[in-house]
Design brief:
434 Repressor (Amino-terminal Domain); 2 strands; alpha+beta; elongated; two-stranded antiparallel sheet
């Protein structure tokens, strides 16, 4: 049975916090059933992090993001110049510029080389 329910209304939206105690063996089944009901009602169910904050996909957070923007961001994080990245990839600096600006598409082979340099999965660049 519900242990506590609280409704907050802000900007026309209501937030309902509900705590329910169920046998541990049924918890996963109940969670899936509730997600199904919410999906039928047209409500998105977002995963929460360890602090209870909603998590968003990278596409939702950066809708205008591109593989080139990712290269530029990773390069900046590593404090690497285009020339330094070009040297690691064995290509010209102008090609790195073209990849970052979107003037040149990223092949699977180049994605794998970039992934190796930045120690990430190549699928991020495709």
């Amino acid at each position: 049975m519900p242990a506590h329910m609280k409704t907050q209304i802000t900007d026309g939206l209501a937030e309902i916090n509900l705590s329910v105690k169920v046998p541990a063996a049924n918890a996963v089944l109940l969670e899936e059933a509730l997600k199904g009901v919410l999906a039928l009602a047209g409500q998105a169910v977002r995963p929460l992090n360890e602090n209870g904050d909603e998590m968003f996909s990278i596409e939702e957070a950066f809708p205008d993001g591109s593989p080139g923007m990712l290269i530029r961001g990773l390069r900046g994080k590593e404090e690497m110049t285009q020339e330094e990245l070009a040297d690691k990839l064995g290509i010209a600096q102008t090609r790195v510029s073209e990849l970052e600006s979107g003037k040149r598409s990223i092949s699977r082979a180049m994605a794998k080389r970039l992934a190796s340099v930045f120690n990430v999965t190549y699928k991020m660049f495709l």
